[in-house]
């Protein structure tokens, strides 16, 4: 049994104009110590998926179907009291903006001690010693001094290291990192990601990394999910997807990387933009932007417009695409005819 099992997760928002399906039929697993990346454009549903794992969806959002199971326990139907024993304790979360996460009127030490006392019966002295040890682990200079400082006295990179230290305080089994380096410059981003990777490997902690940066995903994760319009459209080993993407959307994301463009030419881009979740296209949600909607004979694939694609196995990867299904079928027929 996997450490975390997400099955057919469905998250909706009840708005005046009707229900909006933010997450549709999302399924994946995470093994102990495994590193999983979730990528996609803004609005793809990455953060909503992450928040729903700990049932942190605020109203009018709600989990409409599916299940999230952690060590056999179903989190989405668990009581609030039961969830408090898991949130921050067994499963920790690193949010995008450390200034929004840290309390500006409490010192770093007070916040870390408070976190430990919320989950363990421990003295303030012992809690402070653990907090100091975690600050050393994340390579904070002069950790004794930092414990008595306030968030506004620290740099962005330092604050993010403290958030990672807080996430590690109770030795969790899983860390969910929601774009943990968004507000940092490139050199600090690299340092933070290297630190997070090293700590996860040292402590055998599972990592779910939500990001739009394929470069980071390729260096840090072992498996990845590609999301589009609230649905997983490709999943599999990270290296295989990066080297040989099957879905046209994944291909577009990789081709849009700066290093894929010819020097002096415009950067490649996927035409159009992410559709509104309240008005999704019929069939494959990506078809209005897809360059492969037409077959080699020039005719539009009717299935792309009419049917939501199911997953097709391609090597060790799965892709939800009618074109991939056609190619697989053509390959099968050729093999049978030989």
Automatic annotation (TrEMBL):
Keyword Nucleotide-binding in annotation: yes
The record's catalysed reaction(s) read:
a dipeptide(out) + ATP + H2O = a dipeptide(in) + ADP + phosphate + H(+)
A Gene Ontology biological process term = transmembrane transport
Keywords recorded for this protein, A-Z = ATP-binding, Cell membrane, Membrane, Nucleotide-binding, Transport
Quote the InterPro entries the UniProt record gives. Answer: AAA+_ATPase (IPR003593), ABC_Ni/Peptide_Import (IPR050388), ABC_transporter-like_ATP-bd (IPR003439), ABC_transporter-like_CS (IPR017871), Oligopep_ABC_C (IPR013563), P-loop_NTPase (IPR027417)
- Enumerate the subcellular locations listed in this protein's record, separating them with semicolons: Cell inner membrane
Give an example GO molecular function: ATP hydrolysis activity
The membrane-topology field of this record reads:
Peripheral membrane protein
Q: Give every ABC transporter domain span.
A: 6-254
Look up keyword Cytoplasm and say if it applies: no
A Pfam family? oligo_HPY
Q: Which PANTHER family match?
A: DIPEPTIDE TRANSPORT ATP-BINDING PROTEIN DPPD (PTHR43297:SF2), OLIGOPEPTIDE TRANSPORT ATP-BINDING PROTEIN APPD (PTHR43297)
Protein name listed in UniProt: ABC-type dipeptide transporter
Q: Which organism is it from?
A: Vreelandella nanhaiensis
């Amino acid at each position: 049994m996997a450490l975390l099992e997400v099955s057919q997760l469905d998250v909706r928002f009840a708005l005046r104009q009707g229900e909006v399906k933010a997450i549709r039929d999302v399924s994946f697993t995470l093994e102990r110590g495994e590193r999983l990346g979730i990528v996609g454009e803004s609005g793809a549903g990455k953060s909503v998926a992450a928040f729903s794992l700990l049932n942190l969806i605020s109203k009018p959002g709600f989990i409409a179907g599916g299940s999230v199971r952690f060590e056999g326990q179903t989190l989405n139907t668990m009581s609030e009291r039961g969830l408090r024993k898991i949130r921050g304790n067994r499963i920790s979360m690193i949010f995008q903006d450390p200034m929004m996460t840290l309390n500006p009127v409490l010192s770093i030490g007070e916040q870390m001690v408070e976190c430990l006392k919320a989950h363990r019966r421990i003295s303030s002295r012992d809690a402070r010693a653990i907090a100091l040890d975690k600050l050393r682990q994340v390579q904070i200079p002069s950790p004794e001094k930092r414990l008595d400082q306030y968030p506004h006295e620290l740099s962005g990179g330092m604050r993010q290291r403290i958030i990672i230290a807080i996430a590690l305080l109770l030795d969790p089994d899983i860390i969910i990192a929601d774009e943990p380096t968004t507000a940092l410059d490139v050199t600090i981003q690299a340092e933070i990601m290297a630190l997070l990777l090293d700590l996860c490997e040292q402590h055998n902690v599972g990592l779910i990394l939500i990001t739009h940066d394929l470069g980071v995903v390729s260096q840090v994760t072992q498996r990845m999910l590609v999301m589009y319009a609230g649905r997983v459209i490709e999943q599999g080993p990270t290296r295989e997807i990066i080297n040989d993407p099957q879905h046209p959307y994944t291909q577009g994301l990789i081709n849009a990387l700066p290093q894929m463009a010819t020097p002096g030419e415009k950067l490649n881009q996927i035409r159009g933009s992410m559709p509104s979740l309240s008005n999704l296209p019929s069939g494959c949600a990506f078809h209005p932007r897809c360059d492969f909607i037409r077959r080699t004979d020039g005719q539009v694939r009717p299935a792309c417009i009419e049917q939501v694609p199911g997953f097709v196995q391609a090597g060790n990867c799965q892709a939800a695409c009618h074109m991939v299904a056609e190619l697989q079928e053509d390959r099968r027929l050729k093999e049978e005819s030989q």
